[in-house]
Structure formats: C-alpha cells, structure tokens
Amino acid sequence: MAANDEWSDPLGWIIAGTAGAIATVVLWSALSVVAVLVGVVIAGAVMGVKVATSSRRPQLSQRRAGQLPRPPRNSEQSRYLGRCEAAVARLTDLTERNSDDWLHARVGQVDDQARDVLVSVRELAGRATVLQSSISAANPVQLQQDVASLQAQIAATQDPALRAERERTLVAVQNQVSAIGRMQNLLATLYSRMHSTAVDLEGLASRVGELVAMGSDTVREEYASQVVSELTSDLDTMREAIVATESETRRWD
C-alpha cells in the first residue's frame, strides 16, 4: 500500500486512535488536560510509523519480483557467463594497472561499457535458466510418448465419442509439444548470443592488453585512438544484439 493510501486507511486510524485513547485514560488522573495532548501525540506517532513502514514494502516486493534466478553450476549459460565475467575482470585489471593517464581515461570508458554489457549477459543467463527449468518441468520426452500412444489408440478406436475425446487430448498434447519446441529454439538463441558475446569480450580484453602494453606515445597515440574507437563500436554492436535477444525473450514474460 502506498503512503497516500495509508493515510486514508480507516484501520490505521482506528489503531492509532485506540493507542491514543489508552494513553489518555492511563494518564488522565495524573495529568488531566495534558493527558489528552499526550494521547494525540501517541496516536500521531503510531500512524506515522505505520505509514513509514508500509511505504517501503512496494519497493522491496518489486525488487524481489524483478530478480531472475542465478544459473546452476556447470550449466551452459553458467559457462558462458563465467567467460564474460572473466573477460571483464581482465579488462578492469588492465584499466587499474595502467599508469598512462591518457590511455587510462579511454580504456576506462571501454571498461564501463563492458560492465554494462555484462549486466545484460547476466539477465540473459537468468532467462535461459527460467526457460531451461520450464522445459524440464514440461517433460518433453513423456509428451512425445503420449503423442505416440494417443495416435495408436485413436487408430484402434471404433467408438465415435471415445475417438473424439482422444483426438481432443492429442491436440492438447501436441500444443504443449509445439510450445516446448518454441522454448527450445529460444533457449538455443540465448546460448548462441551469450557464446558470441563471451568471444567478443575476450577479444576486446586482448586488444586492450595490447594497447596497455604499447602505451600512448606520440607515435602510437593515433593508432590507440583508432583501436579504442573500434572497441567502443564493437561494444555498441554487442549491446544492440543483446537488446534484440532480450526483446525476443520478453515475449514469454
């Protein structure tokens, strides 16, 4: 419940009023009019605490709802994510160890953009995990067996009503098989995108290592600028490809 709704919640005012009334009764004999004021203060404090506490709940629940599962160890998405994380870690290490101010600034920009790409790769890994779990739970092998069994039963059924019922069941099972096929294709797309991104990030880290080793003296500064520009363009291409893949997977949310 939002803070504005809390102020209009009648239950909150009942609780606060009850607390204030109890305080007033307890203090009346000793403080008379002052007891009334104390009761009002206590009622306001109770209501304020209720509003402040509840106003934080939506943020926490929204944050939990938006979290995707971490990929299981040794899964295909976990291996690709690990390669991406290792490549970005190498890039960060090269940036921090680089003592050339000019090159440090430019490599640092590449490092920041690579971190953004890594965040997106983690989301792809989470979505791949959701798809993988959904496919496994649907038990595609069992469904294929059901299709074969129903087809055999339909071929041997003479009763029209029973045959129609089995045909309806077959259509339902075939629809599930089709949905699983689409999920499997999408999962393969996610794996392919994560693999290509891992290779691209590893290549990017190698080229940055080359730049850091060369330095940026007056002879090589123009070449270094060209390489940094190319790396930035490569990162933009990576992000665009990942966004396209994310858009495809969000159709299943």
Give a verbal description of the structure.
The protein folds into two domains: 3-65; 76-250, Substrate Binding Domain Of Dnak, Chain:A, Domain 2. It is an all-alpha fold and 253 residues long. It has eight helices and no strands.
* H/E series: HHHHHHHH
Our measurement of the CA-to-CA distance between the termini, rounded to an integer number of angstroms, reads 25 Å
Overall mean pLDDT: 77
Q: Which band does the percent of strand residues land in? A: under 5%
**How many strands?**
0
- Shape-level CATH architecture of the largest domain: Up-down Bundle
Fill in the CATH topology of the largest domain.
Substrate Binding Domain Of Dnak, Chain:A, Domain 2
What count of helical segments does DSSP give? 8
In total, how many domains does the architecture comprise?
Answer: 2
List the helices and strands and how they pair.
Elements: H1 3-8, H2 10-31, H3 33-65, H4 76-97, H5 101-138, H6 140-156, H7 160-214, H8 221-250
Helix pairs in contact: 2-3, 4-5, 4-7, 5-7, 5-8, 6-7, 7-8
List keywords for this structure.
Substrate Binding Domain Of Dnak, Chain:A, Domain 2; 2 domains
Summarize the structure.
This protein has helices at residues 3-8, 10-31, 33-65, 76-97, 101-138, 140-156, 160-214, 221-250. It is an all-alpha fold and 253 residues long.
